[in-house]
Design a protein that fits this description.
There is one protein chain. By secondary structure, the chain is mainly β. It folds into 2 domains: about 10-60; about 65-110, no CATH class. Helix content is about 0%, strand content about 35%. A 5-stranded antiparallel sheet has the order 4-3-2-1-5, with no helix packed on it. β3 and β4 (about 40-45) form a beta hairpin. The N and C termini lie far apart (about 45 Å).
Length: about 110
């Protein structure tokens, strides 16, 4: 399983009743910088330990996919269409052409 920034993992050590949960902050080489969810203490853990063994960690919460949002109305963006001014691609928000349509290239708001 791939370890990703934003995931939450739980210590799988059977000797402890309290199961430490950590959030992955950064991945560098063969280690992950994690933060304990309760104590906020940061530590470095080998990526080899992120597996379901008695000395490892189990995935509790995966990363949620990020949606691209319209900066005008904070709704999910829709389809790409060509800008009539500069002929580059632009996006419409909410999937509705003509509503908050902004070109990536010329930053012009254009009616679709």
């Amino acid at each position: 399983m791939d370890v990703k920034v934003g995931q939450v993992w739980q210590d799988n050590d059977p000797r402890h009743d309290y199961k430490r949960r950590v959030s992955v902050l950064e991945i560098k080489g063969a280690h992950a910088l994690v933060q304990n969810i309760h104590t906020k203490r940061k530590t470095k853990i080998s990526l080899d330990r992120f597996r379901k063994t008695s000395t490892g960690y189990i995935l509790v919460e995966d990363v949620k996919p990020q949606e691209s949002k319209c900066p005008s109305c904070d709704q999910p963006r829709g389809d790409e269409i060509e800008c009539p001014s500069c002929h580059k691609l632009k996006l419409t928000c909410c999937g509705i052409a003509g509503k908050h349509v902004r070109c990536f290239e010329c930053e012009e708001t254009v009616e679709a």
